[in-house]
Design goal:
The protein has about 210 residues and is of the alpha/beta class. The protein has a single domain, classed as Rossmann fold, CATH 3.40.50.360. The chain is built from 7 helices and 5 strands; from the N terminus they run βαβαααβαβαβα.
Length: about 210
């Protein structure tokens, strides 16, 4: 029997008191309760992630067969992160909005998995082949509201996920925490339940057809 493979990506600089992490915990628990068994890979960006460099870029431009052992070492983290994405059925992001956009560590993660486009090489070829993967983005903030004029996180994440072929994207809005955390979290949990039920139904239908 197929098991749903989830790649969980936590981006908050906080740990124990992070609302985004708590909501991601809730999403994982809900899916586990719905399906009985899941496969979970956790990628915590709290401690940072490697950034691209001149050596990294030079190695990324080489054909695989032309790369030396040193080149492969430079690209090792990028390869590991890309393999995690390739292997997942669902990407579950929990991310706060920092200064109206995504955390620097999440941007670095995106650069690592989109290494053939860091210079915009595919800017005119953004119609990636759609995949069956789904993405759930749990978005938190104190004051910046999702889809407001000063929210640059939501459109960017949607664009980049679509860019890599993920078209089924659900955004869980947990923004505006400063003006009513209990209400915002409660609504977000309800939205997570709905999203998880939808995902469970789709997954059960797909596996039944195998």
């Amino acid at each position: 029997m197929s098991v749903l493979k989830i790649l969980r990506i936590d981006c908050s600089a906080r740990r124990g008191d992070s609302v985004s992490r708590a909501l991601s915990d809730h999403a994982v628990a809900t899916l586990q309760n719905n399906l009985g068994m899941i496969s979970l890979v956790q990628r915590d960006l709290r401690s940072g992630i490697g950034n691209i460099s001149s050596a990294w870029r030079d190695a990324s431009l080489l054909a695989d067969e032309a790369r030396s052992q040193e080149h492969r070492a430079v690209l090792a983290q990028s390869a590991a992160l890309t393999n995690e994405v390739d292997d997942a059925d669902v990407l579950l992001f929990s991310t706060p909005i920092y200064n109206f956009t995504i955390p620097a560590a999440l941007k670095a993660w995106i650069d690592m998995i989109c290494r053939d486009n860091v210079d915009g090489a595919r800017a005119h070829d953004i119609n990636a082949v759609p995949t069956s993967k789904q993405a759930v983005i749990i978005l938190t903030s104190n004051y910046t509201l999702a889809d407001a004029a000063d929210d640059f996180a939501t459109p960017y994440l949607k664009f980049m996920l679509s860019f890599i072929g993920i078209k089924d994207i659900t955004v869980i809005d947990a923004t505006g925490l400063a003006t009513g955390q209990h209400e915002v979290v409660s609504r977000a949990k309800d939205a997570i339940s709905v999203a998880c039920d939808k995902l469970t139904q789709a997954w059960s239908k797909d596996t039944a057809a195998e």
